[in-house]
Amino acid sequence: MSIxxxxxxxxxxxxxxxxxxxxxxxxxxxxxxVCIVVKGKLIDAPAHLARLERSLKACDMAPPPEMxxxxxxxxxxLQKNAIHNGSVYVQVTPGVTPRNFTAQPQGRSTxxxxxxxGHFETSPAFTAGVHVQLQPDIRWxxxxxxxxxxxxxxxxxxNALANGLADTLFYDADGLTEGASSNVxxxxxxxxxxxxxxxxxxxxxCTRERVLTLAQxxxxxxxxxxxxxxxxxxxxxxxxxxxxxLIAPVLSVDGIKINNAVIGPKTRQLQKLYLxxxxx
Length: 280
What we know:
alpha+beta
């Protein structure tokens, strides 16, 4: 029986109750973060919590009263579930109001945290890579806010699975935006590491930022620009990053093999650097 945290209390998941009038349920209002845990240590937790605060502010959502104490509560949640490797999911919604578009919650924001076991550094996606497809990006224009409104991503991932693939990469008129739950990097034939610059059209991934820092420290050449779909057949390497993917090599896109479906040296280099970072 797993223990979760809900609105100030640790309790069995089976005992948790949220009002049917919570705006997360009636309007899909909510923001979230996923922070991985390695050997009991939360990885890049300050960056995740800073992004959570930014999302709350962008949505004009009141922070939960536990906001300042979240790192301690996350650690306690892991301890109560005896989890040393895995993740903590943190979700905040505005709380309870009548079902009215402009109603302002009078009570507290709803805070839920769930801990899960996982070994992401040994996952098939990390060790062996993934095959993906391309789809037009139909999502709203504030993808920089990490909201719980994930229906397009759910549909894209399900469609990929139905086609025997692991995931979907989205694109717009300028090029690739991001994966359904990840940021995208390409290595070109000159060895430059390329990823789309931040804007309202993609999420500022915490793992993305860490990979950029590791790459810069390693002396790799970096370019922040859109990646055009027509560049992919000539790409030397391609990979996606997220808290749970870590760094997942992309072996093919729409059936077109990247580097003959062989994981490239710079991807392996960055994977090693990232594993060294989280182990440090």
